[in-house]
C-alpha cells in the first residue's frame, strides 16, 4: 500500500459533537447491547455526555478520520503534564489494511501542532494484542515495561517527540 496515496484520501479533523453518534455506534453500541439491553437510551446519554465533555476539556485531543464521508477511525490523546496517552479505534471495514499506522502518524503530527509541551506519547496495549504492538513499534514507539492495571497485563510503549 502506498502510504502517500492513502494519506491524500484521508480527512483528519477534530472530533465534533455531530460525530459522537458515529463513534458510539462503531465503538460502544455492541457492548451496550450485550450488557445493558434494558438501558440503551440511558447508556447513549452517558456516552454522549462523556464525549461532549472530552471535546471541550483541554486535557483531551480527539481526532476523527474519514474517507469520502466514510468513518475510518478515531484517535484520542489524554494530556498529562508533558505526556500524552494515546488510544486508537479503526472501523472494522479498514482493519488489516495499514490504516492504523497512517492514522497514528497523522494524529501525532497534528498533536505536535496543537500542543507545544508534550514531550512523549504512551500507549498501553494488551499483551495478546500483537497486531497493535507491531503497529506502534513500526512507527517508532519502544517497549518500556509490562505493568498490571486492574489485574490485566499491559505492555507500555513510549515514543519521544
Descriptive tags:
Aminopeptidase; 40% helix; alpha+beta; single chain; 161 residues
**CATH topology heading:** Aminopeptidase
Total domains, how many? 1
Low-confidence stretches: none
What is the rounded distance between the termini?
Answer: 26 Å
CATH superfamily: Gcn5-related N-acetyltransferase (GNAT)
Average pLDDT: 93
Largest sheet: number of strands, sense, barrel closure: 7 strands, mixed
Order of strands, main sheet, comes to 1-2-3-4-5-7-6
CA radius of gyration: 16 Å
Query: How much strand content do the residues show?
Result: 25-35%
Helix/sheet category: alpha+beta
The number of strands is 7
> What is the architecture at the second tier of CATH?
3-Layer(aba) Sandwich
**CATH class descriptor:** Alpha Beta
The topology string of helices and strands comes to HEHHEEEHEHEE
Number of helical elements: 5
Shape: globular
Amino acid at each position: 500500500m502506498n502510504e502517500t496515496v492513502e494519506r491524500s484520501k484521508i480527512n483528519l479533523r477534530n472530533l465534533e459533537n455531530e460525530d459522537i453518534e458515529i463513534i458510539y455506534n462503531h465503538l460502544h453500541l455492541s457492548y451496550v447491547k450485550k450488557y445493558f439491553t434494558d438501558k440503551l437510551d440511558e447508556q447513549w446519554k452517558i456516552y454522549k455526555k462523556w464525549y461532549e465533555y472530552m471535546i471541550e476539556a483541554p486535557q483531551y485531543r480527539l481526532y476523527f478520520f474519514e474517507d469520502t464521508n466514510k468513518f475510518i477511525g478515531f484517535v484520542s490523546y489524554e494530556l498529562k503534564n508533558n505526556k500524552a496517552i494515546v488510544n486508537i479505534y479503526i472501523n472494522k471495514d479498514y482493519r488489516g489494511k495499514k490504516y492504523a499506522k497512517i492514522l497514528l502518524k497523522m494524529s501525532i503530527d497534528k498533536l505536535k501542532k496543537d500542543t507545544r509541551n508534550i514531550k512523549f506519547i504512551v500507549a498501553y496495549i494488551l499483551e495478546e494484542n500483537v497486531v497493535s504492538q507491531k503497529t506502534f513499534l513500526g512507527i517508532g514507539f519502544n517497549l518500556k515495561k509490562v505493568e498490571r492495571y486492574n489485574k490485566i497485563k499491559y505492555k507500555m510503549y513510549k515514543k519521544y517527540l
